[in-house]
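As a warm-up, study this chain.
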Amino acid sequence: QVQLEESGGGLVQAGGSLRLSCAASGRTISSYVVGWFRQAPGKEREFVAAIGWNRYSTYYANSVKGRFTISRDNAKNTAYLQMNSLKPEDTAVYYCAAKGPSGTYYITSGYDYWGQGTQVTVSS
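Now compare it with the structure written out below.
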């Protein structure tokens, strides 16, 4: 069983930056795909970014490409989401998730483990 815990959320002005962390416990996630999703009030949870087990395969939603960077440190069993040039429309609860290497990375149903989420609020 894998437990995931997000941290690093908060309130930031538009144009600012935040770095989210996703710490895993229970077992190593070095062979797992790690994804970040977000959910704004009244909206469905949406894909943000994902990273493969080898750190070199990364995927981004068009809305965050060029502004967000996903990374992982397998030695620390932790993944990160660096968010730059934040916009008010990035305001949401951000969740990290983990799944095995097969399957689609950008849909929520493909993930086996989820964290509780961390709030990100971007003021204009």
